[in-house]
UniProtKB/TrEMBL annotation:
Taxonomy, superkingdom: Bacteria
GO molecular function: acyltransferase activity
Domain Phospholipid/glycerol acyltransferase: 57-176
Coiled-coil region: none
Keyword terms: Acyltransferase, Transferase
InterPro entries (alphabetical): Plipid/glycerol_acylTrfase
Name recorded for this polypeptide: Lysophospholipid acyltransferase family protein
Length: 259
């Protein structure tokens, strides 16, 4: 599998520095990960030609397992970036450096995750990557599905697409939850995995990013496309992280837009 050339480096110095650091590691990682993944899992990849080779795109996928963030970059015909906890890149011992190099090898960009300002910083990081003409991968459900069902999409992906004009490539990942179930420390050898890339979605017809109706309509279109590819049972609800404390429980119970 050959690599498509990357567009010009982003103007943002922090992003540019990280991408520069990751460049050689990424290419070396591809040389190792791609044949290894093919040998161990023999993944079936469908619709690779649906992924635009240049320009900003958001790869929006269902989320079943930790290895989704490995399977998608390995299967994609171009470099795909996703955000990962900055702690994965900060280890100084042998294991820490190994983890950091592995994360860079699959196209990960470090970011401090959390609520409030951390969440806004993550959104800004994704916007900078898209403004640079790169491809980012996101999970509209927000977190992994532990029961195999497809949950309602949160509007953050649609907001980013509407704000930047990036097209969204829907992806249906099948079988990764069997290959590495939640809680497993190592993936199972021989599990069948399928990655399906759908046709790019231009969501601009829904309206402006500052419109709640536009964000909701665009999100529903994204999730419908993912559902057609993944063929999962629909949960019909959001995949909420268990609430911690009385205030958070009240917040989840009240109507609000899931971002």
């Amino acid at each position: 599998m050959t690599e498509d050339p990357e567009p010009d480096a982003p103007a943002d110095e922090d992003v540019a520095e990280e991408l520069h650091r990751a460049g050689a590691t990424y290419l070396l990682g591809r040389m190792i990960l791609v044949p290894l993944t093919r040998l161990v899992y023999r993944p079936r990849v469908e619709g690779r030609t649906n992924v635009p080779k240049t320009g900003p795109i958001i790869v929006a996928s269902n989320h079943l397992s930790f290895i989704d963030s490995i399977a998608i970059p390995v299967a994609a015909p171009r470099r795909v970036h996703f955000l990962a906890k900055s702690s994965y890149f900060e280890g100084t011992d042998f294991k820490g450096r190994l983890v950091a190099n592995f994360m860079r090898a699959v196209g990960a960009i470090p970011v401090r995750r959390g609520a409030g300002q951390a969440a806004l910083d993550a959104l800004d990081e994704q916007r900078r990557l898209l403004d640079a003409g790169l491809a980012v991968a996101l999970y509209p459900e927000g977190t992994r599905s532990t029961d195999g069902r497809l949950y309602k999409g949160r509007t953050g992906v649609a907001f980013l697409a509407l704000q930047t004009g990036a097209r969204v490539v829907p992806v249906g990942v099948i079988g990764t939850d069997k290959a590495m179930p939640v809680g497993a420390k190592m993936p199972k050898i021989g599990s069948k995995v399928t990655i399906r890339f759908g046709e790019p979605l231009d969501l601009s017809h829904h309206g402006a990013a500052n419109s709640g109706r536009a964000r909701r309509g665009a999100t529903d279109e994204i999730m419908a496309a993912i559902h057609a590819l993944s063929e999962q049972e629909l949960a019909g609800v959001y995949n909420e992280v268990p609430a911690q404390g009385a205030i958070e429980k009240i917040r989840q119970a009240l109507p609000h837009e899931r971002r």
